Amino acid sequence: MAEKKLTFEQSMARLEEIVSLLERGEAPLEDALALFEEGTGLMKKCSAMLDKAEQKVLKLTAAPDGTPEASALDGEG
């Protein structure tokens, strides 16, 4: 897949596609390794995107003294 800026959702969809292809076990070894490498990169990218989103949520819900302030995500409590 060409290197381009993918959204989290696009990256996850491609990762699911790669897993499906690898699970079938029909790809030649060289192709399977390339898919595995691409999947590993996508997994790292998705993990980093989730970490960044978590940090943003924590920042948005921080108490005045900077400590995380627990609050319900759905607006309750």
Q: Which tags fit this structure?
A:
77 residues; 64% helix; cytoplasm; nuclease
Polypeptide structure, described:
The model has no long low-confidence stretch (mean pLDDT 85). By secondary structure, the chain is mostly helical. The protein starts with 7 loop residues before the first helix and ends in a 17-residue tail after the last helix. Helix 1 packs antiparallel against helix 2. Helices cover 64% and strands 0% of the residues. It is built from 2 helices and no strands. It has a domain of 53 residues.
Q: Topology of this structure?
A:
Blueprint: H1 8-24, H2 29-60
Strand content: under 5%
Number of strands: 0
**N-to-C span:** 45 Å
Which class of secondary structure composition applies to the elements? Answer: mainly alpha
Order of helices and strands: HH
Radius of gyration: 18 Å
Please sum up the structure shown:
64% of the residues lie in helices and 0% in strands. It has 77 residues and is mainly α. Heterooligomer composed of large and small subunits.
